[in-house]
Amino acid sequence: MPLAKIIFRPGIEREGTQLTAGPGWYDMDKMRFRQGRPEKIGGWEKFSASVIKGVARSLFDWSTAASAAYLGIGTNLKFYVESGGAYNDITPIRLTTAAGDATFAAVNGDATLTVTENGHGAGAGDYVTFSGAASLGGNILAAVINHEYAVATVTDSNTYAVEATDAAGATVTANGSDTGNGGGSTVAAYQINIGTNNFIASTGFGVSTFSSGTFGGGSSLSFAGQLRLYSQDEFGDDLIFNPRGGGVYFWDESAGTGVRAVDLSTLSGASDTPTVALHVMVSTLDRHVICFGVNSLGSAVLDPLLVRWSNQESAAVWTPTATNTAGGQVLSGGKSIVGVVKTRQEFLIFTEVSIHSMRFSGAPFVYQFSVVSENISSIGPNAAVSIGDVVYFMGNKGFYAYQGSIQRIPCTVLDFVFSAIDKTQYHKVFAASNIDNSEVTWFYPQGSGGAEINRYVTYNYLEQVWSFGALARGAWIEAESRSFPIASSMITGDLDNNVLYNHEFGHDDEGSELVGFVESGEVSIGDGDSFAFMRRVIPDFRFDGASGNASVTMNIKGVGFPLETPVTLSTSTITSSTKQNHVRVRAREVLLRLSSTGTGYGWTMGNFRFDMRTDGRR
Asked: Average pLDDT, whole number, for the chain?
């Protein structure tokens, strides 16, 4: 019988059954489609040997006029600026107390230091740095006290505890000579409050500690302890960033990586700077700093629909006058700004029920606002990404593209994604671009009740096909000034040891096996009672990398009826020297599964030919 070439449709099909998916693809992991053919995705390695504290959910890459490359990294615990592979802690200081305000008490045989500081404002996990302290008289020396600590427990607004360590991090236990106090010169510098790794929904707008009311009569929710999401953008050589629901901060690149970021209000000539915001961006075209969801002039209360912008070319001046371009606009519709995406020509602003366009128009109004769509929006603050002139975003019930108007993207994995996504953690979803592979990927949490990101779904916008898989990442950036896209790990059980990865690097998972597989739908060669008998397969592969040890495992499965569980009927190994595989398979429908577990190589499937014919049951 002549060899039959089965052409598998590109893309994953999960809107039906495995039978209706054939001849196409039904399941996969760590694979993509290129020119319609399955291909193992690129690997990754650590971006730097250094580690960061907390899960990074925000990355921003920029370079200066002098070609210095930086990476802003916002985690739930810290904010870093990376330079030359080193992660520099520039987390802003919210409070520095007067010398002598902080005192210490120790108990013999215990490493716990009780700190008394009236109105400290710290919560468990917050960071404080002590300086100028004196020895307590025994093991708790000045060098033990005078460094950074994470607050262990909080007793009340005036008292908290830390666990005493030396400069190397080893635990230090007090002895009977440690009588307490620490001297009259201790200064405590408190970093901004940390965030968490979970989103907590509210019946009203999630107002922060800066606000005192709610919208729609719902109960209030403090942003303290809320899921920590940063927005950040470059202002010339410098960086401006904002923890969602917190203050707006400025890092002066010329001061060096050893200097922390500061509140906008501390800049020279500052006037009416925002005290709380949901999102910050810089307009590249006209050099305004823009806050979305921000306190109004003369108020410390966050208005979740207010957009304000600074005077042109200034990050410090926000007071509108007849001679400058500072101003503001309240959006109509909805209760809160969810997210913002910057394109080449406009800002696309998402509320929970609508989408607005914001375009620079010049004097006297500076910006023009218009409603783009109603009853459609982004699923979360970071679920949209701009690629060229197109914005791709995930909504509550589907995927969309914006290029002057909103278009729904046909999706062959829609129910697979939305039936399993953790609906309580929509704010964790983020979109990522991979321009070299014409892809936009959404990372999302599958599960319920506080699930972390563990899945991804990818749309190839040139070939208009979908793929998916399992991968835990906190953030992703194309990183145009770097050689590879950069992503953050998602280690929540050991927050002191998170890392960044270079993606699309080689073929492995940090030198270990990167397991990829793809499985087809069920393929029939006849109707009624006809069975297929297959006796030979002529495979077609392209191997990349260390092709000398490259291999792919081919499993051929079969079923007699659609509701049966597929049974593996043949297993073969395919290498670069394989000419043909002899098999003995009989089934009404057959399906193909290709997988690899080795290191150092990638692979792409070509056109397979099968020696098969119709047959009976025996």
From this structure: 92
The dihedral sign for the CA sequence 122, 127, 133, 134: positive
Q: What is the 3-state secondary structure (H, E, C) of 112-174?
A: EEEEECCCCCCCCCCEEEEECCCCCCCCCCHHHHCCEEECCEEEECCEEEEECECCCCCECCC
3-state secondary structure 288-336: CEEEEEEECCCCCCEEEEEEEECCCCCCCECCCCCCCCCEEEECCCCCC
Task: Give CATH 2.40.30.20 domain extents, the chain.
Answer: 93-191
The bridge status of strand 93-96 relative to strand 187-191 is antiparallel
Round to whole Å and give the CA distance between 569 and 582: 12
21, 36, 420, 466 from 16: Cα distances, Å: 7, 20, 16, 15
| Rounded-to-5 percentages of helix, strand, coil across the chain | 5, 45, 50
Residue 526: pLDDT above 70?
no
Q: Which residues contact 411 (CB under 8 A, 6 or more apart)?
A: 398, 399, 417, 459, 466
Q: Which of 170-179, 215-224, 451-460 has the highest mean pLDDT?
A: 451-460
With a CB cutoff of 8 Å and minimum separation 6, the contacts of 5 are 607, 608, 609, 610
Q: What are phi and psi of 481, to 5 degrees?
A: -85, 0
Tell which residue, 361, 385, 379, 487, has the closest CA to residue 426. Answer: 379
Tokens for 262, please give them.
């500061």
Fold assignment, 4-43+514-615: Jelly Rolls (2.60.120)
In 380-425, alpha helices (H) = 414-418
What CA–CA distance (Å, rounded) separates 373 from 375? 7
CATH 2.60.120 in the chain is located at 4-43+514-615
Q: Cα(280)–Cα(293) distance, rounded to whole angstroms?
A: 9
Calpha distance 418→416 (Å, rounded): 6
Per CATH, the number for 93-191 is 2.40.30.20
Beta bridge partners of 533: 586, 613
Residue 212 has pLDDT above 80, yes or no: no
Q: What is the pTM of this model?
A: 0.94
Q: Are strands 289-295 and 277-282 parallel, antiparallel or unpaired?
A: antiparallel
Q: What is the pLDDT of residues 557-610, one digit of tens each?
A: 999 888 889 999 999 999 999 999 999 998 988 999 999 999 999 999 999 999
Rounded CA-CA distance 103/466 in Å is 59
Give CA separation, 601 vs 34, 47, 515, in Å. Answer: 17, 20, 11
Q: How far apart are CA 450 and CA 491, in angstroms?
A: 15
Angle at 567 between CA 563 and CA 571, to 5 degrees: 150
Task: Give the residues across from 131 on adjacent strands.
Answer: 187
- C-alpha span between 26 and 14 (Å, rounded): 6
The predicted pLDDT at position 618 comes to 58
